[in-house]
Amino acid sequence: MIDAALIESLKALVEPGKVLTDADSLETYGKDWTKHFAPAPSAIVFPKTAEEVQAIVRWANAHRVALVPSGGRTGLSAAAVAAHGEVVVAFDHMNQILDFDVYDRTVVCQPGVVTEQLQAFAEEKGFYYPVDFASAGSSQIGGNIGTNAGGIKVIRYGMTRNWVAGLKVVTGTGELLELNKGLMKNATGYDLRHLFIGAEGTLGFVVEATMRLERQPTNLTALVLGTPDFDSIMPVLHAFQDKLDLTAFEFFSDKAMAKVLARGDVPAPFDTPCPFYALLEFEATTEERADQALATFEHCVNEGWVVDGVMSQSEQQLQNLWRLREDISETIAHWTPYKNDISVTVSKVPAFLRDIDAIVGKHYPDFEIIWFGHIGDGNLHLNILKPDHLSKDEFFDKCKIVNKWVFETVEKYNGSISAEHGVGMTKRDYLTYSRSEAEIAYMKAIKSAFDPNGIMNPGKVFA
């Protein structure tokens, strides 16, 4: 922990009242959604300008104080956890939309702009910001960029990286860099912008982002399809992709849906029980396109890939079908789940899931597994629920053993140990399962170039 004199010198860099040291604030801002690490920051500082961020970073260099960025704190990898006396730099007050250009289809945001805020602004202007996920109401653009957030629309629109036209960043030395300047075409050497996307604040802090927008989708329509087994989901994906431009293709298990339905908030899509479900979405821009979706559904039924299904006929029904998928994380939080966010190429998903299921089932038959994910892009969410008879610490210790087996399987399939939640502290010790020693060495060299004193979110991504 840093001493009182240092905290007083930090207070001089920002507006009055923008440095907090009370216990509640340290607890709140020192953690994210992970429950593995106890927060223990020294102070929370709230800059309002890029210049204040620069001053904070220079102060931290002068006094060798570690800094941790904090956005909406919805992360699941402990990338925003301050567990060792760091100063948390919270971007809640850098939350303005600064500019909009209708011709370039871009919006200039401060890092504290909430994802849903940007989505609403885009809609108001007749456009669409397509990066979307369950935490859109609290996650911030700076955090999305730091983790290269994905979500439910990646199959059509890609990750956050695809939508970042330009960045202003403060590096680990306190220097302000303007990267790419919103250009569509820029062939002038290294594009440093992409180093900061997904870097989890380890190279520097985003202080401004120019984000691209898209046209608004038309008449979004969803189908929920029940399948007799997991292997059937892949030919269903292929059949629909062959006929329609899908905006989403999600899956979840019967156990996942049962948890959501038990709350009584949304109705079951149909009465036929199925072990797995696929949710797909497309733009029903014409009657012919909707007919094509129904014809493809009938084809899948005739092939034995689909047992039953329903297609949304209203906006309310569309929302209800999506809630079957999007309410899963919130619903299972009651059971203190151990989460893994992993990915393989789409073609390998069925074999990969079977291997993981067998591993956990063999060694821990009393663990309930909840599967769901963005299967259209190969991203699976493995959630292991804590049995009542185990304490949280006992459960997480057992899951660490599971982790090794899971990541060995990820390595076997040339997959990623973190598809969209980042590395942080929860995955850093397993990075070698997805990255070679040479890659990690180059990553550390890049870190040293931008942050020679190692003050920017240390201990995240790698030790």
TrEMBL record:
**What InterPro entries is this protein classified in?**
FAD-bd_oxidored_4_C (IPR004113), FAD-bd_PCMH (IPR016166), FAD-bd_PCMH-like_sf (IPR036318), FAD-bd_PCMH_sub2 (IPR016169), FAD-linked_Oxase-like_C (IPR016164), FAD-oxidored/transferase_4 (IPR051264), Oxid_FAD_bind_N (IPR006094), Vanillyl_alc_oxidase_C-sub2 (IPR016171)
Q: Extract the GO molecular function terms from the UniProt entry.
A: (R)-2-hydroxyglutarate dehydrogenase activity; FAD binding; metal ion binding
Cofactor(s) required for function per UniProt: FAD
Q: What is its EC number?
A: 1.1.99.39
In what residue span(s) does the FAD-binding PCMH-type domain sit?
Answer: 37-216
Keyword Oxidoreductase attached? yes
> Can you tell which superkingdom this protein's organism belongs to?
Bacteria
Record keywords: FAD, Flavoprotein, Metal-binding, Oxidoreductase, Zinc
What Pfam families does the annotation carry?
FAD-oxidase_C, FAD_binding_4
Give a yes or no for keyword Zinc in this entry.
yes
Q: Which GO terms describe its biological process?
A: respiratory electron transport chain
Subunit-structure text: Homodimer.
The record, for PANTHER family, names: D-2-HYDROXYGLUTARATE DEHYDROGENASE, MITOCHONDRIAL
Query: What is the designated name of this protein?
Result: D-2-hydroxyglutarate dehydrogenase
